Amino acid sequence: MTDVARPAAEVTPPLVNAVPKPRWSGAAIVVGLASALVVAIFAIFALLCWQAFGNTIEQTKTKAQVAADVVADQLQWSMSASLTALRFIADLGEAAFDPANRPKIEVALDRLPSDALLALYDATGTVHGDGNGLADNIGGEDFFAALKQGQNWLIVPVGKDTRYMLIAQRLGGTSFVGVALLALPATLLEGFWAPQNLGKDSTAAVNRQDGPMVGRYPTLAGPQSATSSPMWATIQSSQNGTYTIRSPIDGVLRVVAFRHIPQLGLITFATVSQETAFAAIWTAIFTVLWLLVPIALMLLVFALVIARMLAQTEGTNAKLAAALAHNDVLFREIHHRVKNNLQSVASLLQMQPIDRAIKMNMGQRIAAMSAVHEHIYRSSSFTTVRVKPYLETLIQNIRAGGDPKVRLSEQIEDLSVDKDAATPLGLILNEVLSNAFKHAFPEGRDGAITVQLVATGDGRGRLMVEDDGVGFDPAVPAKGIGQRLIRALTDQLSGTSEIATGANAGSRFELVFPLAKETAD
Fold first, then answer.
1. Each residue of 79-111: b (16+ CB within 10 Å) or e?
2. Are residues 269 and 391 in the same domain?
3. Cβ–Cβ < 8 Å for 193, 185
4. In whole angstroms, how large is the CA radius of gyration of the chain?
């Protein structure tokens, strides 16, 4: 080490890099997660609703198709029974008008609904006997003309009177003698329809395969035809099926199922109101929403409250971080200034007219203290100091000013000590190692010095400096302040130290001290 401690250039301590602000704050994450959860809940709910609507449509189509099949089967049985009774009457020919055969005719009608009506018309279309409230004359009707021209039987489209479904039978063989007209009540469809429990605005209807309506429940005022339906082509091309359409009659959106009865030339229809089918779903949806919406709102409110608390905490943390960064800069600046001031003191000391040896000793001590402050402001910790680089630098400086013939070996563990212990530890090492270089090897003799710093395993450290020089005589009083300074610094470290004869007849210094600051109980 040189005689004069050179003042270091004024170098601004490195500033602590500002901590990058996170892209998302905790408050934003909480609100975002809560919002995402609410959106996910409602998305799942919407998906379930969409699936429920789809399942309901399919179930409604199946239900309507079953109803159309039931109406078709029941109607086929009723119509077939009616045609059987009419064929019996037709076989009677002109005798059907004979009152004596009326009991036979009644027997044939016994299998039909009790409110079925029969009227017999002669070859001119005039009613014969009691017409049971049916038309008095059918001579001008299209179906009468068709039967007169040779058609055996036909089902009559609905006319002005929508109370009945009419089946007309030709009487007579090659010679036309009249017509038997059987009227089945339109309420017959209600008997087929009601057990299906299709709900409000559902209907049951029967049309001929060429389009005209034969009967409907609930009844309509006047004739209707399926040929005007946009689905007519689909109806004609399939034996059965379903479709959804808004009725041109009453504007109700319905699921419609149909079934052909080829033997009778009829098509049965069963319809279910889509609004009725969805009523239960809408009730369930509104019930769930009454529960779900308040829960979602409470979740968002809680999220906002938590977010506000987090925002306040983050704001406080940001202020604390800024204050900590500012204090870090101030601490670095203080240690930097102290280091520079110590070097300035060392320079001023060298300018004083005092003994060279005294100036050199004082300069080394000041350099040891200055090195601690330099090491602190260049590190990121102000509570503890990693002494390995600090002591290695100190040893190198002392070695540079010592006799090159003296060998120096060192074993310094990477220990951390309390910041208040770094300076006394460095000063002690400076005193002991400088004394070894000065006094252990007089007259330029060769030798070796060993410096060791290790942890003892009980929270303490041990500093040992040993040489193989001439040794020392404890009876000879010390002339300088070195030993007094070492004792004072050892007390400051709350440690113990001793100087004894080394293994190679030289001297050995040993210091044991706590690595961490001891606190009172």
1. bebbbebbebbbebeeebbeeeeeeebeebbee
2. no
3. no
4. 58
Can you tell me the distance from the alpha carbon of 182 to that of 120, in angstroms, rounded to the nearest whole number?
9
Q: Tell me if 320 is assigned to some domain.
A: no
Domain extent for 475: 380-514
Sheet holding 447-455, edge to edge: 406-412, 447-455, 460-467, 507-514, 496-501
Q: Which residue has the tokens 């299709």?
A: 198
Residues 273 and 391 in one domain: no
**Pair 122, 170: CB distance under 8 Å:** no
List all residues 6 or more positions away from 80 whose beta carbon is below 8 Å from its beta carbon: 263, 264
- CATH code assigned at 450: 3.30.565.10
Tokens of 352: 């004083």
Both 385 and 260 in one domain: the answer is no
Is residue 353 one of the residues assigned to a domain?
A: no
Show the DSSP H helices in 184-253 as ranges. Answer: 188-193, 232-237
Q: Structural domain tally of the chain?
A: 2
Tokens of 181: 């007209």
Residues 201 and 66 in one domain: yes
Q: What is the pLDDT of residues 303-342, one digit of tens each?
A: 899 888 888 888 888 888 888 777 766 666 666 666 677 6
Tell me, what DSSP letter sits at residue 5?
A: P
| Rounded distance between C-alpha atoms, residue 103 and residue 47, angstroms | 66
> Which phi and psi (to 5°) does residue 401 adopt?
-95, 0
* Cβ atoms within 10 Å of 253's Cβ, excluding its own: 14
Q: Quick check: 248 and 228 in contact, CB under 8 A?
A: yes
Three-class DSSP labels, 60-105:
HHHHHHHHHHHHHHHHHHHHHHHHHHHHHHHHHHHHHHCHHHHHHH
Structure tokens that stand for 176 in this block:
């036309």
- Block residue for tokens 């319905």: 254
- Angle at alpha carbon of residue 446, lines to 443 and 449, rounded to 5°: 115
Q: Where are the beta strands (DSSP E) in 132-217?
A: 153-156, 164-171, 178-185, 203-208, 213-217
* Residue 183: φ, ψ to 5°: -110, 110
HEC readout, 439-479: HCCHHHCCEEEEEEEEECCCCEEEEEEEECCCCCCCCCCCC
Spans of the chain, pLDDT less than 50:
1-19, 520-521
Place of tokens 């200034």: 337
In a domain, 325, yes or no: no
* Cβ neighbours for 237, distance < 8 A, ≥ 6 positions apart: none
Tens digit of each residue's pLDDT (9 = 90 or more) over 441-498: 887 788 899 999 999 888 899 999 999 888 876 666 666 667 888 889 899 889 999 9
